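ESCALATION

Customer reports they have been waiting on this structure for their group meeting. Please prioritize. Original submission:
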Amino acid sequence: MKRISSPFLALSLLTAATIFPAPQAEAQAASPPAPATETQTLPDPKPERFQKEIDAFDAADEKAPFEKGGIVFTGSSSIRLLNIPEVFPELKALNRGFGGSHISDVNHYLDKVALRYEPALVVFYCGGNDLWDKKSPAQVEEDFTEFRTRLFEKVPKAKLLVLGVRPSPQRISIRNKEADLNERFRKAAEADKRIIYIAGSCDRYLDGAGKPIPELFVADGLHMSKAGYQIWKEILTPYLKVEK
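Update from on-call: job pushed to the front of the queue and completed.
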C-alpha cells in the first residue's frame, strides 16, 4: 500500500493534540489531601448543644443561690458524674460539670459555670474529649490558657486545682496525647503558684505494666467507678480548704 503524506494531515494532528491534551494519569489526579499537622487548629463544636444543662444551672441558682467565695467543680463528664455529698460528705461545694464538653465549651459558659460564683477554689477536669475529637494538645492548651486567664482576672486570689486527663481503656489510642497535655498542665502550675497540678491524677489509674486498671472504670471503659472516685477523694482532700 502507498503511504499517504500530506502537510494538511500533519497540521490537523498537531492542532488536535494542542486542543485535546492527553489526560493526566488517574492516580495523580486523585492524590489524597495532605495529612493534618499537630499544630492545625480545628473548629470548636457548637456550645449551644449544652444549653439545656446551662439553663438547669440557672434554675438551680435561682432556687438556691450559692455563696460566693466557695468551692466550684467544673469540667466534663467526670465532674458531672461526681456525687459530691457521697465522695466528699463534709464538703460544701458546687458541681458545674457538663458531660461531653471541651474546654472551649467551658470557656463559652465560664460566667455561668464558675465566674459568677467568684470562687476561692476551682477544681477542674477537662481536655480528654478535646483530644478524642482530634484537637492537638497545643490547641487544648490554648483553651486552658484562656480558662485560667479569665478565672484569675475575675478572682485574682483564687486557687485552681487541675486534675490530669486520666488514661482509660476506651481511649488507649490517645494515651500519648493525654500525657502531652498533662505535661502542659503541669508546666502551667509550675509557672503560677495559684495553680496546683494534682499528683496521682493520672498514674494512680495505671497498673505496674502501665495499663489502665479495669476496676477503676465502669462498663464503658471511660468513666470512673466508685473505686475510681475514691482516688479523687484521696488526692484532692488535702487541697479542698478555703481560707476565710
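Sent to customer with the following note: The chain has a mean pLDDT of 88.
Escalation resolved.
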